[in-house]
Amino acid sequence: MAAASGSVRLQRCMVSPAGRHSASLIFLHGSGDSGQGLRTWIEQVLNQDFTFQHVKVIYPTAPPRPYTPLKGGFSNVWFDRFQISNDCPEHLESIDVMCQVLTDLIDGEVRSGIKKNRILVGGFSMGGCMAMHLAYRNHQDVAGVFALSSFLNKTSAVYQALQKSDGVLPELFQCHGTADELVLHSWGEETNSVLKSLGVRTKFHSFPGVYHELSKAELEKLKSWILTKLPD
After folding, report:
1. CA distance 95 to 67
2. Stretch 126-146: mean pLDDT
3. Element (H, E) at 60
4. Which residues form the signal peptide (predicted)?
């Protein structure tokens, strides 16, 4: 199904909390993956599911759409890119459509009784970029944002939105492998320093020798950070 409007309901897989549900985490996959694929990958890296006593983990799947870097081939991507580079315009039309679709997901959690400041959004690669657009342009009242192996374009609409913002911004947890050849470590570093200059509280964690992938040390550090932002 092409993402044409906010009426799209995303497929998703979920990991329920072991105890009483009092917070939610939305974890967005990278390009060409799926929610189930990301959950399985994390399980393989950690040798166990990414679970919490009180936090529900939601892994939505991006609807298939034509993707320019694949010469227009269909792929499960959150938005289109003109190219995989930090020095080109963003495909804002597709980003904005998906911000609306993901807003419906956040609103569903709020309707089920979870406060907005008890919801975290983040993702891997393209998923982390999508989460930054979602939170910093549309939902500055979420508990926090995380971006793993992700970047924003040099003229990102996220930067433009933050230049006009004067409220308290959600904290950003950002990680990047130094050996990443697809999304360069320097792109992630630059994204982090620009966001910091615009008032985002953030720390950039570098992982030596890690490629465009998830690592056990990174996921363990992420889990600790999640528990500081969403205490039981």
Report:
1. 13
2. 98
3. strand 55-60
4. none
Pair of tokens at residue 42: 């994390």
Task: Check which CATH number belongs to the domain holding 214 and give it.
Answer: 3.40.50.1820
β-strands 171-177, 202-207 pairing: parallel
Q: How much is the pLDDT for 7?
A: 62
| Residues spanned by the domain of 38 | 12-229
Active site residues: 125, 180, 212
Q: Return the amino acid letter for 129.
A: C
One-letter amino acid for residue 213 of the chain: E
Distance CA 195, CA 191 (A): 6
Cross-strand bridge partners of residue 171: 144
- Both structure tokens of 113: 């009784």
Judged against a pLDDT cut of 60, whether residue 6 lies above it is answered with no
Residue 139 has pLDDT above 50, yes or no: yes
Q: Which residues, in sequence order, are bridge partners of residue 205?
A: 175
Q: What is the mean pLDDT of residues 121-140?
A: 98
C-alpha dihedral, 163 to 164 to 166 to 167, nearest 10°: -100
Residue 20 lies in a domain: yes
Three-state secondary structure call for residue 202: strand
User: Which sign, positive or negative, has the C-alpha torsion 202, 91, 214, 142?
Assistant: positive
- Count of domains for the chain: 1
Q: Report the mean per-residue pLDDT for the chain.
A: 95
Q: How confident is the model over 80-103, as pLDDT tens digits?
A: 999 999 999 999 999 999 999 999
Rounded CA gap, 54 and 229, in Å? 12
pTM: 0.95
